[in-house]
Specification:
With 578 residues, the protein is α/β, with parallel strands linked by helices. The protein has 15 helices and 26 strands. The strands form 7 sheets. It has a 6-stranded parallel β-sheet. A 6-stranded mixed β-sheet has the order 8-9-20-21-22-19. The protein starts with a helix and ends with a helix.
Length: 578
Amino acid sequence: MAAFVGAMKLFLCWLLWLNTLSSLQGAKDFYEFRYPFIKRASSFASSSSFSSSNTDEASYDYIIVGGGTAGCPLAATLSQNFSVLLLERGGVPFSNANVSFLRNFHIALADTSPTSASQTFVSTDGVINARARVLGGGTCINAGFYTRANSDFIRRVGWDARLVNESYPWIEKQIVHQPKLAGWQDAVKDSLLDVGVSPYNGFTYDHIYGTKVGGTIFDRFGRRHTAAELLASAKPKMLNVLVYASVQKVLFDKTGKRPRAMAVIFKDENGNQHQAFLTNNRRSEVILSCGAIGTPQMLMLSGIGPKAELKKLNISMVLHNEFVGKGMADNPMNSVFVPTKRPVEQSLIQTVGITRMGVYIEASSGFGQSKDSIHCHHGISSAEIGQLSTIPPKQRTPEAIQAFLKRKQDLPHEAFKGGFILEKIARPLSTGHLNLVNTNIDDNPSVTFNYFGHPRDLQRCVHGIRTVAKVIQSDRFTNFTKCDKPTLEKLLNMSVPANINLIPKHTNDTKSLEQFCKDTVITIWHYHGGCLVGKVVNPDHKVLGTTRLRIVDGSTFSESPGTNPQGTVLMMGRQALN
């Protein structure tokens, strides 16, 4: 009897231990994922074989591919009335310190590991770029600036102005803040006004000519608030979010007059394949929200795109459309490095000058002083903030590394106490294209933006650099930096090595502003296009020639709205299907 009692006690203790382990794992997952409807892709149960009938499969009214800037508000909105499956290839941002804190902005972009929230790609132009790989998308790795599009943009894309004006505040109340203006940003503001970028419009979300202070998704403690937090507004029982779910392609029923989207195939974090189906609800759709790089890539891998492109990679053609991947554009940015003789606090974009010449002037500062920096940082355009150090290891030749190290050694010590003033071209006329390299969705496609291919873009860049030089040379700014008024040639001399790209430099970079613009062009990640309205989608963003397939992201834009597109892409997710 005593032996039996002892055995029972041991058994109960074992059960208690198992329960404790389970509870601890559950608490860990809850902390990491925050919301109960977010789960790992491997938790999904589906048949491994395709069937034309989905009666035994998990089915949803809407399947959203891409849990990014548009995908998250879209999922939260649709879940109020429909069952929604949101599939995100990356992880969650909530417990990622590199995503969550402004002070680590540069480190997140410099992380080239397979699980990084940022995936590097280099365009054929030689400009190093990044795309998001995390729930919340670009809102997790960008500089945080928030602004609305102007009314002309809303009118050009044909959106309902009333609905747009109702949707922006829904975003702003949840994740947008008024910044505490940093000293660097305040000095830029005053200097912009001094050189004629006026009037001063104060703090506003509106896109207005002149100088203003915009919103930010960083709060006063420097914590980032991403699109993923908008999922808190979802109806939990109607939404399933799977992370580490890499969608391979969309499946179509081709028995009718037009291909009809019916399901998606995705792989989980263990490499196992799953299928998720749409319900027979007449409103059911697969919605692509993979961004300007991922969405045209997904369309082509699913069999929609230029016939020759698909044939080259033995992709079974569902629908020929020569315009998929065409009209790619990126707003070219050039920056001028400004040293100081005083420490400056870290700041990302807060102040912006909106000129009538089609140039935006912005600024960043202080990242050279981060104790957490993995190297010496010297501004938004430095290698560790998303440029040279984010080149894939195979492309880091000894010659490239040595040249970079020499350029850094040539920078004055003041570089590590300074910042950058940036000029960005609005509505560039130069466009390029996107092509598949292989059929692996995890690999980057080949992207060409054709920076400064149109002479008008180059003219505006020259005007922008001259405006930046005037700002830096103004009394307001030299009083702040405590440095002598620099000549334009000196500014360019310091800036050429600080703008890191893979474009060969020329000896006249500091003599010719045109050459400076072309040789030092970088990006601020506002690329767009590839699935343009009227070419790939109709005005309601439904994919032409198909049924039950729609695109909701910046790939449909022929221009980047406002000084920063994130506010409009967030709003787009809120109002797209209303």
